[in-house]
Write a structure and sequence with these properties.
Largest sheet: 17 strands, mixed
Number of helices: 3
Distance between the termini: 38 Å
Helix content: under 10%
Order of helices and strands: HHEEEEEEEEEEHEEEEEEE
Radius of gyration: 18 Å
Shape: globular
Length: about 290
């Protein structure tokens, strides 16, 4: 995942400035404010009831079953990579929904050296997610925490440096984009076929740009819990200079969720996120007491 692991590439060198996905870092930060809390009413009720999501048959390209937004989903990844030496860590993605409100939380850690948490929250609309607020916090050992934020209005986006730019239809942030792509492929499975392309406007730090992803291959990935058929989705732009590029593998039999994300930074740095267990979701049936 671009957003989940972007700064882990810098974790092996705590004296270097932490990159932000190859995008320009935030400047003139606003006074720090805490990350938004999880939707209070949902966490006690749903998180203890999480159970493995069942494997399902992939939807045909001619159509998909009616999509239902899950109330709670958690995905855990093993992080491996290379930056002046091997690095290892973990990452977690959590989705919460309360009515038409949503929250996506992504966290990454590499031992005591580095942690990074980002949160997207907003509303669920007819065309998927509508972000309203994005917040990020990064902590590196022996450094002050860095915080940044974005704010979304119907026609404007306030970037992390305080500038306002015109929004683009369907604009997402670095946390919401993965859920938005999952929704897109679930409701339009014909878009997740080799040779297809997907365009997604992304607001990341100080930029709002259109990103184009190509579906380049259909691949069977092996995980500790079994083999999973996936589609390999790759950004069209190549990484250069300090930029990073992320390739994503979506699994139709696991609700089109991203089961692997590979992030590269030239010339030879990379981070690989691989699912360590089936996604966990709130049980439709309350647990027996």
């Amino acid at each position: 995942m671009l957003p989940v692991a972007e700064v882990v590439i810098a974790a092996a060198d705590s004296t270097a400035a932490a990159p932000t996905m190859g995008f320009e870092p935030a400047v003139a930060p606003q006074p720090p404010e805490p990350l938004p809390a999880l939707i209070p009413a949902l966490v006690p009720a749903l998180m203890p009831a999480l159970v493995p999501a069942p494997m399902a048959a992939a939807a045909s390209a001619s159509g998909a079953a009616a999509f239902e937004w899950p109330p709670s989903t958690q995905m855990n990844y093993r992080l491996s990579g290379y930056y002046r030496g091997a690095i290892d860590g973990s990452a977690r993605v959590e989705w919460l929904r309360s009515g038409q409100r949503y929250q996506v939380r992504m966290g990454t850690s590499v031992g005591p050296m580095l942690s990074r948490n980002i949160v997207s929250e907003g509303e669920i609309g007819a065309a998927g997610l509508v972000p309203r607020r994005f917040d990020g916090e990064q902590k590196v050992l022996f450094r002050a925490a860095r915080r940044w934020s974005l704010r979304f209005a119907p026609d404007r986006v306030v970037l992390s440096d305080g500038r306002e730019v015109d929004t683009l239809p369907g604009a997402q942030d670095e946390a919401s984009q993965f859920v938005q792509l999952t929704w897109l492929f679930s409701t339009q499975p014909e878009r997740l076929q080799v040779g297809q392309t997907v365009e997604l406007p992304l607001a990341i730090s100080r930029k709002l740009e259109r990103w184009i992803y190509d579906v380049v291959a259909e691949e069977l990935l092996q995980f500790s819990f079994g083999a999973v058929p996936t589609f390999h989705v790759k950004p069209r732009r190549e990484a250069s200079g300090g930029d990073l590029s992320a390739e994503i593998w979506f699994a139709p039999t696991l609700q089109y969720l991203p089961v692997r994300i590979l992030i590269r930074q030239p010339p030879d740095s990379w981070v690989d996120l691989s699912l360590i267990s089936p996604p966990l979701q709130a049980s439709a049936v309350p647990p027996a007491r």
